[in-house]
Amino acid sequence: MANETQTSTVGFDPEGPLPDGEAVVFDNVSKFYGEVLGINRVSLRLGPGITGLVGPNGSGKSTLMNLMTGLLHPTEGEIRVLGAPTNRPEQLFHHVGYLTQFDSFPATLSGYQFVYSYLRVHGHGHADADRLAWQAIDRVGLREAAERKMGGYSKGMRQRIRMAQALAHGPRVMVLDEPLNGLDPMARSEVIDIFKALAEDGCHVIISSHILHEVDMISDRVLLLSGGYVVAEGGVNDVREEMHERPIQVLLRCNKATEVAGALFAQEVAVEVSLHDDRQGVMVRTANAGDFYRFMNQLVLDKSLDIETISVADSDVRAVYAYLIENEGEGL
């Protein structure tokens, strides 16, 4: 079994000014799957705003979120979400909305039916469920598509309607597992705007991702996880800006790949660009991910790009993550 003596403590102060009723609290929490470590002796106190959980697959992000939402129970320790214990789902889910990483949905239901039926199961009457469903749908900007079947939705639309379902009952804690995965730049921007609006309303927005710069750009705080431990807290911008010798690699597929490649070189936001044989894919290496994504958002508007996918290659994400973990004492 993994070493159980190490303790990860990030922002945890039992005597601090933020009471349990206003915080998500992990008090010396461990979770083991038999002999396999999920997370070990994690203590956290998370307040309102956007918190990013970052780490490669297997670092403990999903375990932390599943514990937070009561889908798993800790082997040791205690978790409280705005004062509610996670083993009381009827109390917990008054506070919590959960968007899982799995893009699963009933294809024959309309977006409205998907949100409305969840609210009915949640205990709302017809009139109340109808009102709250439309309110949530309007918040994610899908009223015009709400009566269409979800089977015809794009990836970005499905993500937004799932977001509407998660927030429809008015939770004060939103737990979002890889919510930006696979979204094109326009859909990504729209979803991020929703996160920011929720945070401005005082919501606790907790987002997981394996993409470091993405979470850092939108988060008030970032927690880095490694091997079941929270190893660091804070921003990664300072460290990332010093890593010009380790540019990240982004895979982009769109209808105007050649034009995109030329534009990236002209604006000096890429250090290397290569086209796929089918001329629909571009592999980009960039030392400044923020500038790259901002420039891509502008290209979408200026050149009417039809972007199929944009994603960071796992090997480079792992290299950046490993660098940060190795240097956590120097920059974080």
Fold and architecture overview:
By secondary structure, this protein is of the alpha/beta class. The chain has helices at 61-68, 89-92, 111-121, 126-139, 155-167, 185-200, 212-218, 237-241, 257-266, 289-303, 314-326, 328-331, and strands at residues 8-10, 24-33, 36-46, 49-54, 76-81, 84-85, 96-99, 173-177, 204-209, 221-226, 229-233, 248-254, 272-275, 281-286, 307-312. The radius of gyration is 21 Å and the shape is globular. The protein is 36% helix and 26% strand. Strand 10 and strand 11 form a beta hairpin. The protein has a six-stranded mixed β-sheet, with helices on both faces. Strands 1-3-2-5-6 form a five-stranded mixed β-sheet.
Cα end-to-end separation:
29 Å
Q: Specify the helix fraction band.
A: 25-40%
State the low-pLDDT regions, or none: 1-15, 238-244, 314-318, 328-332
Q: Which second-level CATH architecture of the largest domain applies?
A: 3-Layer(aba) Sandwich
Query: Looking at this structure, what is the CATH superfamily of the largest domain?
Result: P-loop containing nucleotide triphosphate hydrolases
Strand content: 25-35%
Tell me the strand order in the biggest sheet.
7-8-9-4-10-11
**CATH fold field value of the largest domain:** Rossmann fold
How many domain regions? 2
Count up the helices.
12
CATH class wording of the largest domain:
Alpha Beta
Rounded radius of gyration (Å): 21 Å
Average pLDDT across residues? 80
Number of strands: 15
- Using the alpha-carbon principal axes, give the shape: globular
Largest sheet: 6 strands, mixed
What are the secondary-structure elements, in order, as H or E?
EEEEHEEHEHHHEHEHEEHEHEEHEHH
- Assign the structural class, choosing from mainly alpha, mainly beta, alpha/beta, alpha+beta, or little secondary structure: alpha/beta
